[in-house]
Design goal:
Oligomer: single chain
Strand content: 25-35%
């Protein structure tokens, strides 16, 4: 009996140890399951949030506001991630067994987003927006010093941001909160210099300065709090920061579609071309010798490299993303990646806001009144160049439907009160030709080109004085952008074609050599073919103060030109050299038809001789280099805010430990 008792006790002890082992293993498995579900939910948010933010900017969003709320966003993320069960129903059906019972105690119905999500601090909402009015969060002793600089907005926009993901031009930086900003917010409030996040998608190198604005929202996730009794596992709360970086296009070259660089279409190598900074494309290809300095290659979908492609002197091969090669590069280079593809970078999404041909169009792009939208900024006003222009030239009458020569235009401009007003100019009434008395004072004229084209000529050198002569117009620091478009709703006006048809009018740019009066820059947008007849923007101006622009380098007014077709020169019998410095971007979205940035066309529609092209392509180094109109991208990230004790108020405005302004 003694021996039997000892054996029974041993068996009981072993059994209990085995049961405990199973319990520990089961809890570990549930914790792992929670972790995987949480990761799936976070990845789902990356694709859902930017689309909801865009939807909130669209006309009509105020009448369907419930589909853009944070509660709806989180519920959609839970559903998309299948966070209620460890196995999808479609997979369970493949077992061909009825009445399957899951042994995973972590599987349970989630009644509402509030079962998992909550604000990090304070109010009953599900997020804390990154707004300077969110005092409880910003002064929280545990997380306050780990947060980036908040944005400022009106009280109404702040309340909207608690309920919806709001991206708006009305959100901006203020001097009181300068943590992480590279230049003073007093001079660069809409966009500033930010440090590129530590992510593998190389639009810039981690830690490098880039031009942008960071919208962010803080929230908490607590997986398992609603079914702790079933699992026996205490719920763990984690804090996260979801960011939408507004990133103006600032690289030497970029395209949302297919970008091919290094050679012209006929296989001729690029000649006198230099790069300082990175390259981004939806699909990227290099041909021949391509050398980057001060930047890296980044593609959303795919990248193919020639055998002589280098970054900082290091060769980049097509196996850059292969297993083992990627890890070796990481060990050798640390956080810097010579090349990256968007699908391999974890909790990151890069969204080019490229509207294609719609970027040039003004007709039919109204955002309606503010009351019809959730965001104070309309989607078209935000993402199309035509709608962003401060001035307009609307062609309302042609000589005839068969002779598309403008004879009446309506000129819109901003007066000194900020209102958009207009004046109508008609041939034979109040719009003299160039050869008539008073004609040389007008910045817009017409001409029959030797090319056989009928042209509206824009004289940039005359525009400042012309605005001053109107009496009520603000100067070119405010009226710093212009869109020209034919009003095809008029009987004599025909909508332009692409490529440009023989009957279509064109625009000719003249008088732009000295742009020094345009101290805030100038942007031009049109849906017509544009001929750059003369040198443009060759006179430097003093570098803006507190801009972070490199000392000792010439600064020029930032200028941007957007047209579906550009031609260099205006004479058929002259093949002029083309020299330029800055950035080249494409509005093409097609990933089959390549954009070749240096395949420039002359007046005869033929390619400019490669030996006559000199391109000094470089990335922007300061928000002062931003022209009035530019292409926009969004970088969407999610990162954990590690909750550690920290001194109270360390992110307070004016507190030194919160991070002062430091120049690049």
């Amino acid at each position: 009996m003694s021996i039997a008792f000892i054996m029974l006790a041993g068996i009981t002890y072993a059994y209990r140890a085995h049961v405990r082992s199973f319990e520990i293993e089961a809890k570990a498995q549930v914790k792992l399951d929670y972790s995987q579900k949480e990761e799936a939910v976070l990845r789902s948010l990356l694709s859902i949030v930017p689309n909801k933010a865009i939807g909130a900017m669209r006309r009509g969003s105020s009448s369907t506001a419930e589909i853009f709320t944070w509660e709806t966003i989180f519920e959609e993320a839970i559903a998309k991630a299948n966070a209620e069960s460890a196995i999808e129903a479609e997979i369970a059906e493949t077992f061909e067994r009825e009445g399957l019972i899951s042994a995973n105690t972590g599987d349970s119905a989630i009644d509402s987003a509030g079962d998992i999500f909550s604000a990090v601090e304070g109010h009953r909402g599900l997020v804390n927006p990154g707004n300077d009015a969110e005092h409880g969060l910003l002064f929280d002793p545990k997380v306050g010093d780990k947060l980036p600089a908040p944005l400022h907005s009106t009280g109404g926009t702040f309340l909207l941001d608690r309920e919806y993901p709001i991206v708006s031009n009305e959100k901006y930086y203020i001097p009181a909160w300068s943590k992480g900003l590279g230049v003073p917010a007093s001079t660069h409030s809409r966009f500033n210099l930010l440090r590129y996040p530590n992510i593998r998608f190389g639009y810039a190198k981690p830690g490098d300065w880039f031009v942008g604005k960071r919208n962010w929202w803080a929230f908490s996730i607590t997986f398992g709090a609603h079914n702790t009794e079933e699992t026996g596992i205490p719920a763990r709360r984690k804090n996260y920061l979801l960011s939408i970086y507004e990133v103006p296009s600032q690289l030497p070259m970029s395209s949302a579609g297919f970008l091919s660089m290094g050679q012209h279409e006929d296989g001729t190598a690029w000649r006198d071309t230099s790069f300082l900074g990175g390259v981004f494309a939806g699909r990227l290809e290099t041909r021949g010798d391509v050398a980057l300095t001060g930047g890296v290659f980044a593609a959303r979908n795919s990248a193919t490299f020639s055998n002589s492609t280098t970054v900082e002197g290091r060769a980049v091969g097509n196996d850059f993303d292969a297993l083992g090669v990627r890890e070796a590069r990481e060990a050798r280079l640390g956080d810097v990646f010579d090349a990256s593809v968007g699908g391999d970078v974890g909790r990151v999404v890069f969204v080019p806001l490229n509207r294609g041909a719609e970027f040039f169009e003004f007709m039919g792009q109204s955002d309606g009144p503010d009351s019809e939208r959730l965001s104070p900024t309309g989607w078209n006003a935000y993402s199309t160049g035509a709608r962003q222009a401060q001035m307009r030239i609307r062609i309302t009458r042609m000589a005839s439907a068969g002779y598309q020569m403008p004879i009446q235009i309506r000129f819109y401009y901003r007066n000194r009160s900020g209102q958009l007003v207009y004046r109508t100019y008609t041939r034979g009434a109040n719009w003299p030709t160039e050869s008539e008395s008073g004609g040389p004072e007008y910045p817009f004229q017409t001409d029959n080109l030797d090319l056989g084209k009928r042209a509206l000529v824009l004289r940039l050198d005359r525009l400042p004085a012309f605005l001053d002569s109107l009496g009520d117009a603000d100067d070119v620091t405010v009226n710093n952008s212009l869109v020209i478009y034919p009003d095809s709703n008029r009987s004599t006006v025909i909508a332009p074609s692409f490529p440009s048809a023989d009957v279509d009018p064109v625009v000719v740019l003249r008088g732009g050599n000295d742009m020094s009066e345009y101290t805030n820059g100038f942007s031009f947008v049109t849906n017509l073919r544009t001929y750059i007849a003369e040198s443009l923007n060759t006179v430097p101006i003093p570098t803006p103060s507190n801009s972070g622009y490199p000392a000792g380098q010439e600064f020029f007014p930032p200028v941007s030109l957007f047209a579906p077709e550009k031609r260099f020169g205006i004479s058929l019998d002259q093949n002029s050299p083309v020299e330029f410095s800055g950035q080249l971007n494409s509005l093409k979205t097609d990933e089959t038809d390549a954009f070749r940035p240096l395949d420039l066309q002359g007046a005869d529609n033929g390619l400019v001789d490669p030996d006559l092209i000199h391109a000094d392509l470089r990335h922007m180094r300061s928000p002062a280099e931003l022209p009035p109109i530019f292409l926009m991208n969004w970088l969407v990230t999610i990162e954990e805010i590690h909750d550690r004790p920290s001194p109270a108020g360390s992110n307070a405005p004016g507190n030194g430990s919160g991070g002062g302004t430091t120049g690049p």
